[in-house]
Please model this.
Amino acid sequence: MHPAFSYVLLAAVSSVCLSLLFFHALTRVPSSPLAKSEAADVVALLRHANLPRSAVIYDLGCGWGSLLIALAKAFPDTHVKGVEISPFPCFVARVRTRRLPNVSVVGKNFDKCDLADADAVTCYLMPSAMPRLSKFLDESVRPGTAVVTVTFWFRGRSPKAMKDGPGLRGAVALYVWPAMSGPDHTG
Model:
């Protein structure tokens, strides 16, 4: 192998790693892949939500695209929109979903998105992001929008339905927004 190629490869790998670390530090949310069983639970809860046939589903923090693929296959008449701030996982999600005509992926922070057309929103974030997401959803989605979270839930909000994960796998919860449980509904 030519030494110049080794340096280019090392620079590329280092750039990807530094990018992942930077965006993890910025958002405090790592790009973690979703297990197939968790994606199946999200799909089951969205079926329970009785979405319209041509629904628009957002996956906030779509990461590597695992949930986008599961949603696109389970709901072929929907438009599934992935949102990911970290450039490399966003690129991977775009590559993985390029043959799915009902999927689009944008590279930006979820709080810069217009969710006015959302029939459903999914997310697999971290506890530190949930209060900000709760406030953002209060300001941006229509009442009655289905919101499905994986592992990390909204404090002070009551889910409509849940699926418990076995062992260490996280539970999945369906909310019908605004999902307030009383006067104190902070996220």
